[in-house]
Amino acid sequence: MSRLLIVFLSIALLGNAAAATFDLYTYTVNGDEVSVTIIDYPTNATGAIEIPATIDGRSVTSIGSSAFYNCNGLTSSIIPDSVTSIGSGAFAGCTGLTSANIGNSVTSIGSSAFYNCTGLTSITIPDSVTSIGDYAFAGCTGLTSANIGNSVTSIGSSTFRNCTGLTSVNIPDSVTSIGDWAFQACESLTSITIPEGFTDIRSFVFEGCIKLTSITIPNSVTSIGSGAFSTCTGLTSINISDSVWLIGEAAFANCTSLTSATIGNSVTTIWSSVFRDCISLTSITIPDSVTSIEQYAFENCTSLASITIPDSVTSIGNYAFSSCTSLTNVNIPSSVTSIGSNAFNGANLTVSNNAQDYGLYTIADLIDLRPGSSQLQIDNNAVTLQLQIQRSDDLSTWTSAPEDLVEVELPMQQGNGFFRFAMPQE
Question: Class assignment of domain 196-349?
Answer without folding.
Answer: alpha beta
